[in-house]
Write a structure and sequence with these properties.
Blueprint: E1 3-9, E2 12-17, E3 20-28, H1 33-47, E4 54-55, E5 58-61, H2 71-74, E6 79-88, H3 92-105, E7 123-129, E8 134-135, E9 140-141, H4 150-159, E10 164-165, E11 169-170, H5 171-176, E12 184-186, E13 192-194
Antiparallel strand pairs: 1-2, 3-6, 3-7, 4-6, 5-6, 5-12, 8-9, 10-11, 12-13
The protein binds 6-(adenosine tetraphosphate-methyl)-7,8-dihydropterin (A4P) and magnesium ion (MG).
């Protein structure tokens, strides 16, 4: 792990970070979701060190709803999801701040009236930050949803078949246990195909 303390300004600890591998989940189900992911990837490419960014295919997945989903929240368009991994030189909370800024730039509305897991133009989640385990008021890593989400596990598996996730173990075993809930692969031409038949 290459985090090292670089000093303090106004009580804020500055961390100098060199080449940390991060995994970010991308999701959108509003306003041309595939395009939203492409726009976000172009910005992530700028954050990434060198040409380290790799992105999975895009997948079309059924919206996972919060337990408390009400009538209005119960009808949601399908999501387009993908996962990107890249090297960065940002400390974890700084990365979170950057991701939230990208979400806002792409029209994500987040205020006290927003229903949890309501439709969104863009959601960027930190899935993994190297092999760190982080549990603060604003950031939990590994992301708590990884284990049960087909739209996270399958794209991650596309990028690494040998990954071992802190607290959760081998990615391949998580994938085997996770039903696909009708998830479809989106081809470059925007057509859908079965995930199993993808080569
Ligand atoms: N936060 C804590 N840990 C993290 C992390 N690892 N990455 C905090 C990003 N944020 C993290 O997030 C709420 C707060 O979580 C943030 O302020 C941050 O400090 P948010 O993006 O404002 O709201 P949210 O995304 O609605 O909440 P939440 O609980 O993070 O939801 P998820 O887990 O992001 O799930 N169905 C499909 N098919 N595909 C999807 O992508 N996504 C969701 C949202 C629901 N259903 C979905 C999908
Ligand atoms: Mg989120």
């Amino acid at each position: 792990m290459s985090l090292r303390k670089a000093g303090q300004i106004g009580g804020v600890e500055l961390m100098a970070v060199q080449g940390v591998e991060v995994w970010v989940g991308l999701g959108s189900n509003l306003d041309d979701p595939g395009r939203q992911l492409e726009l976000a990837l172009a910005v992530l490419q700028q954050l990434a060190l060198g040409d380290s960014l790799q992105c999975s295919s895009f997948y079309l997945s059924k919206a996972l709803l919060a337990d408390s989903a009400n009538e209005e929240n119960g009808q949601q368009p399908d999501y387009v999801n993908a996962v990107a991994k890249f090297q960065i030189s940002l400390a974890p909370h700084d990365l979170l701040q950057q991701l939230q800024a990208i979400e806002t730039l792409q029209g994500r509305v987040r205020d006290e009236t927003t229903v949890r897991w309501s439709p969104r133009t863009l959601d960027l989640d930190i899935l993994l930050y190297a092999d760190e385990q982080i549990d603060t008021a604003t950031l939990t890593v590994p992301h708590p949803g990884i284990r049960l989400r087909e739209f996270v596990l399958y794209p991650m598996y596309e990028l690494s078949q040998s990954l071992v996730i802190p607290q959760l173990g081998e990615l391949s075993r998580l994938v085997m246990r996770c039903p696909m809930r009708g998830m479809r692969l989106l081809n470059d031409d925007g057509r859908e195909s079965d995930v199993e038949n993808a080569s």
